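Usage

Read records sequentially. Each one opens with the input sequence:
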Amino acid sequence: MATRSPKLYLEFLAWMNQRGLALADLAQEHIDDWITGATSQRRYLIRYFLKWTASRRLTRELTVPSTPGQELQDLLDEDDRWPLLQRCLTDDSLPTDVRAAGAIILLFGPSAEHVCHLTPNHLESGDKHAHLVLGRHPVLLPPRLAELLRHLAEQPQPRPQLSRSWPSPRWLFPGMVPSN
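and closes with the structure output:
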């Protein structure tokens, strides 16, 4: 069994015991009651235990809904966004990768995870303009951001200490984790 949260699984079994339920008796309404009584979102992790029990025919197939997304809070308004973008494009005291990633996110809104997977191949440089391919379509880059990304693309790629394959993909934003 996946040991994602053994303490949670024990809590669930104790909850079942208090209600006089055996694993074979579990029904969808019981799972819904378990989730409804949650004071935190960690109760949704019971899905892994229930997949394990169903795979061994200890329970029937039961559905645990997806963890509800948290409401977006503290979104930047336009008055806050533009000074941050200006800083990303002009403040040489910040590391180049931080400046470039921040500018991409502030301008175009991709997730940080998406930005981490950009390679030099996503950068298209022409005589006058540079574009960054985000998704299917290239987006026009402001000259300062294009310069930052070109600088990152030209940097020697550090070899990951734990990489399984060499050469690994070249990343604009190489990370500490192998394959990232």
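Summary fields computed downstream for this record:
- The mean pLDDT is 84.
- The beta strands are 123-125, 130-134, 137-140.
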